[in-house]
Fold this sequence. Notes:
By secondary structure, the protein is of the alpha+beta class. The protein folds into two domains: 2-116 and 206-333, no CATH class; 122-199, Pdz3 Domain (Roll), CATH 2.30.42.10. Helices cover 53% and strands 20% of the residues. It contains nine helices and ten strands. It has helices at 2-29, 86-115, 130-134, 153-162, 205-231, 243-254, 258-276, 284-297, 303-333, and strands at 34-50, 53-68, 122-125, 141-145, 148-149, 167-174, 177-184, 186-187, 193-194, 197-199. The chain has a four-stranded antiparallel sheet with strand order 5-4-6-7. The chain has a two-stranded antiparallel sheet with strand order 1-2. It is elongated, with a radius of gyration of 26 Å.
Amino acid sequence: MGVTVIYAIIIFCLLIFVHELGHFIAAKSVGIRVNEFSLGMGPVLLRFGRGETQYSLRALPVGGFVSMEGEDEESNDPRAFNRKSPLQRGLVLVSGSFMNLLTTVILITILALAIGMTSNVIDQVSEGYPAQAAGLKAGDRIIQINETEVDSWSDVTGTIAASKGETITILVERDGEIITLESGVVTNEEGRRVIGITSRLEHSLPKSLKAGVVSTWNLTVEMFRFLKVLFTGGGSMDDLVGPVGIVSIINEQAKMGIFYIVNLTALISLNLAIVNMLPFPALDGGRLLFLIIRQVTGKKITDAMESKIHFAGLMLLFALMIYLVVQDVDRFILK
């Protein structure tokens, strides 16, 4: 369990640091005065100053913050958050989630690069299968099946599965030469048409980066589908987990290896990015919503009024966190 706690602290600190770093970089880039950049919450363990900003490490690795001049109160400082244009403030607000989104892409890209991506190059030809009889060899790059050009392993397997008849025509590239072969097709135990070949894994940065972007997009779509179901009454609070639940999941993933830990970190980072942009008070999305509303309504909502609403939202988030902790203890510890 000790290793799990270490993993959990590293993951939480990394993702929070990345999130707050996004706010920090964006604030500095538009000229906002940053009073403090803190990793962690609670009592200060370490603090030092550089220029106008104090940097601190705090005892509880459960959060962090970037304290900007004029963020929650009126300030006459020309470099205060409240003195900047709506576009500049909006950029600062979305930058934390953007960094978490970028982190998700990077982590999935690293995973894909380390593990390898399937390709349309044959790695092994299974003995006794039609591919062996057809003369296919390891290292052959399949470029066409019947009339369909292929450039990925999913193209290969999909085209074979969708083929008709007892044989298929396969064009392969071998030692710079294009060869045409005829192969029979058999049906495996799952009812899928196959010829008995496996894919060679390629460690390609461009392909891995593409996989990182595509996977992040697909996961984002799934996350929004889940939120839609949850907020329209089709979901349940039982589908949510808090810090205790996350640590428990980390414990299970740690048993399966570092790749699973990295994958889980990517998922948590994506969740952090999306949840932070929800239009709820105290969250970045809530602050962005108020920024838009105040542009429309003018000064009808004061800084003091908005600050109170965000404080109320923060209290509700704390209440939700306590509820999830109690629920997680019952599900993951007392079960």
